[in-house]
Amino acid sequence: MTEFETLAWTIIAASFVVFALIKIIPPYRRRRRVEFIRTYEFPHGLLSKLEERYPGFTREESSLVSRGLREFFAAYLMSGKEFMSMPSVAADALWHEFTLHARDYQDFCRRAFGEFLHHAPAAVLSKDEKSNGGLQQVWWYTCKLENIDPVNPTRLPLLFALDEKLNVPGGSVYQPGSEGLGALTRSARSRRDRDHTRRSVADRGGGGGSGGGWSRRRWLRRRRLASAADALAKAARLTI
């Protein structure tokens, strides 16, 4: 083999390694971050602050809220850090208290997301479904985390069930058959139909070049990330 051929094969091998690392590292990093969120211990005294705000809460109930907040953070990460709205008043109160521990919260965001996540107050469903994008996002991903069909749910994700379960004053309630829950399931149906169309196009090798294939790869990465979050889902299912 000539020196030129050796150099060419070296470049090809190096390119292959770089390509493999580009494909492997992001999903691996996300799985590590989901595990970090799942096992993260909130700052000392944080749950006590929540119990001061809601005097009837037991430690078991405030711990349940902390699981709901972890679910929100995991869903945000799963989405690719797209905008989401907080559906639970109780989890929002805990999130707010968490941000007051500025150094701890900044460190958590850095390790969980690689960037700072600004707190946004709890949101309620609007009659204009186009204004509910943040809630539709969190509905989709919390359902995925808990292996719930977002179109035909047999139960609610923990984050959407918290306020009613804990009788939170002024909390958000998502009753089966209600218009609010119907709006979320309709948006999920539209999203699933779009995803199905994209996957079909990608499987046929179409989609105008790399776009369809990219959607297929993103879908596969999210499936792997959902598997990594299975422990979080099991914990949530045990509490509902």
Largest sheet: none
Q: What general form does the structure show?
A: flat
- Find the count of extended strands (DSSP E, 2+ residues): 0
Amount of helix: 55-70%
| Chain-averaged pLDDT | 81
Structurally, the number of domains stands at 1
Structural class by secondary-structure content: mainly alpha
Q: What is the string of SSEs from the N terminus onward?
A: HHHHHHHHHH
- What fraction of residues sit in β-strands? under 5%
Task: Evaluate the radius of gyration.
Answer: 21 Å
What does this structure look like?
The chain is mostly helical and 240 residues long. It has one domain. The chain is 68% helix and 0% strand. The chain has helices at residues 3-39, 46-53, 59-78, 89-100, 102-113, 133-145, 158-165, 179-203, 210-228, 230-239. Helix 2 packs across helix 3. The longest helix has 37 residues, at 3-39. The radius of gyration is 21 Å and the shape is flat. The relative contact order is 0.13. Mean pLDDT is 81; it is low at 16-25 and 207-214.
